[in-house]
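User: I'm curious whether this sequence folds into something compact or stays loose and floppy. Could you predict its structure so I can see for myself?
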Amino acid sequence: MSASTIIFYIVSALVLVFGAMSVFTRMIFRAAIYLLFSLIGIAGIYILMNMDFIAALQVLIYVGGIIVLIIFSIFLTHQSGDKLPKPLFKRIVVAAGMSAFGLILTLGVFYRTAFKATTEMGVDHSARNIGRQMLDYHHHGYVYPFEIVSFLLLAALVGCIVIAVKIKNK
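Assistant: Here's the prediction. I'll summarize afterward.
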């Protein structure tokens, strides 16, 4: 086993552990911090794949923007030290069932896919190629889906703030 493979397994394990801790903790501020560490680990995986530009975007957008926004939202609602309520048993059972279904579906697709070694050239993941693909309106541009996702994230953020303010005023 090479050193990069060992580092990949270590970083992947850390991403999974911090992701699980983010989901299962009842302290909301700690959940945001665990999510921060998980996203930094994903940037580390991008670096191991020689995708430095994507890793920089991961850190800049998700770690530097989204997580900071989540932490500010937590502090603005004055609930940074509060514990989240215990989930209902019924919801736990439904979530476990849906997770098991998703895992079975993913493994089914994985085992049915025939992976073949290829000698074809890989996709160019340079900043220039990514920029051209993002702004190319004629062939397969991604600027419209990118903007739609940004509006969706903005709407979700506004909705979260409205719900948090309503809960706080009760």
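Summary: The radius of gyration is 20 Å. The mean pLDDT is 85.
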